[in-house]
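Weekly modeling sync, notes
Attendees: AB, CL, MP (scribe)

Item 1: holo prediction request
CL wants a bound-state model with iron/sulfur cluster before deciding which constructs to order. AB pointed out that an apo prediction alone won't tell us much about the pocket. Agreed to run with the ligand included and paste results into these notes for async review.

Input as submitted:
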Amino acid sequence: MVDMVMAPPEMQVVYDYPDSLTDTPTSYCPGCTHGIAHRLVAEVLDELGLREQTVLVSPVGCSVFIYQYFNLDACVAPHGRAPAMATGIKRMLPNHIVFTYQGDGDLVSIGAAEILHAAARGEKITTIFINNAIYGMTGGQMAPTSLPGQKTTSSPTGRDIVSTGNPIRMSEVIAQLDGAAYIVRRSLHDVASIRKAKKAILTAFKVQMAGLGFSMVELLSSCPTNWGIAPETALEWIEQNMLPYYPVGDFKVRDDVKAL
Amino acid sequence: MTRELLKGNVAIAEAAVRAGLDAYFGYPITPQTELLEYLSQRMTDLGRVFLQAESEVAAINMVYGAAATGARVMTSSSSPGFSLMQEGMSYIAGSELPCVIVDVMRGGPGLGNIHPSQGDYFQVTRSAGHGDFHPIVLAPATVQEAVDFVTLAFDLADQYRHMVLIAADGQVGQMMEPAELPPMRDRNRPEPDYALTGAAGRERRVVHSLHMQADEEEAFNLKLQKKLKQIKKTEQRSIEYFTEDAELLVIGYGTAGRIAYTAVEAARERGIKVGLLRPQTLWPFPVQRISELADRASGCLVVEMNAGQMLEDVRLAIGGQIPVKFYGRMGGVVPMPDEILTAIEENYSRLQILV
Ligand SMILES: Cc1ncc(C[n+]2csc(CCOP(=O)(O)OP(=O)(O)O)c2C)c(N)n1
Ligand code: SF4
């Protein structure tokens, strides 16, 4: 894959590029946790031996170029429509692994109908849901997940919930649907959380392999650029501001998933 | 071979099954719904994919996904639902994927009504989504033609890796007529080289419509336009009646064309030298044949079930050679042969004065 500097023979390679990633440099800002999420998904696909039977559906958002970063068959859906496109693919390739990777604007706002119905149908796909409480790609406008009082370029004095409504906790909403088999939220703000996130992603793909229904892992993610703070402070911001509103947890782990 | 009495929508559905339809995604809307209802049972019986989507927005994106795996795939709708599909259609065009989309047009604008109309002509031929492209558009006038066009649609879609629309008005979708269905086609075919099937033992494939650099996007557009130009050259289709010595050329498609035929026949009985050209492809528009006929005729009458949309294409094709007049009804009103006959007589006598 990657043309790495060869390790001397007496040394062992303990950390390498996952096969499921390409060596294309990403377009993400310094301190953005999209890249961490990519790596976790790629490691899981490698560990489960799924690379050659997986189709990735890219969203529209900062991760629109994800099809360049993953060494997989891939496509790019219109903004918010990834679950519908993934449905079309999965229905044609029921024995393949199909996953969407979507931001919070993509999934909670414009694509709310598509994700809810894919989950309700128990579509046997996996969704990696990146919640950074903002529209990253378009330059930091308010998202349906932006916190009360959060300053964005389209809520310059802070999100006013009286006129703009309240943030949506989508994992909790989707967990209500019978077709949803595994719905959890994790965070990417520190190493321990990242390890837990990877475990959840592993379970989500196993749910799909076993054909149990819709699985989704929401990941609280940073956007230092549009939050207007330094990368390190951004991780603290997740912990101090996002976690209280979006608690990590398992919102739906169906019995058949527990038995996996 | 046997002819069966079939409703237009059902005939289109069964023809698609026989043409090798792998998957159908759709959402109910009158006057198209029987197509979806029929396939819900038929596709399931055959072990093929049928799914009622949550909206036309979702349906077209399911089509996009299924087409990306190399499947033969179709959706159908009527005017308001077709509007909702335009975003996805543009992505499909930008990804050069084949698919077939049926629009059983109804009265509009807005919610309009469920009566037959041709009010979507501009939309199907010009603005089936943002960006520079035209879909191939077939316009059947009879149930038999609808059946034949379905097979043709899938073949053209595969041949050009492009979307093909069947623009049927509500009349074609709803009426019952005897028609002969084609035999069941084998669905086995080689995997297309764009199909997303998991990158096992080969380079990975990507289906997308994204070109960040302007010059790359232009290069893609040039490639797309080259293909469209080829389609324009080779796929113009129309059918003619009494045109050999026609002084007045009537042009109408779909149901309007069919009713115009009755009127033209009656006018011939009265000694009027009138002929009919019925476009079968709305895009590419049969400009070549129309301009040839305009060389010989001294006037043209366009008949449509709208305010005069194809009229613009006819005027472009004729380029001011002869006067082009229009007769149309709108909002779901289907013109009667008598009305068209009167319009023919009026226009013909005007030509006689001019001569
Ligand atoms: C139909 C449509 N509307 C709007 C846009 C513009 N747009 C692109 S990305 C985006 C928001 C992305 O935000 P999010 O999904 O949260 O992802 P992030 O960039 O934060 O990772 C918007 C509004 C678009 N591409 N398409
Ligand atoms: S704008 Fe935000 S979400 Fe997008 S790459 Fe930069 S930090 Fe990440």
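Recorded for review: Chain B touches chain A through 39 residues (CB under 8 Å).
Action items: CL to compare against the apo run; MP to circulate these notes.
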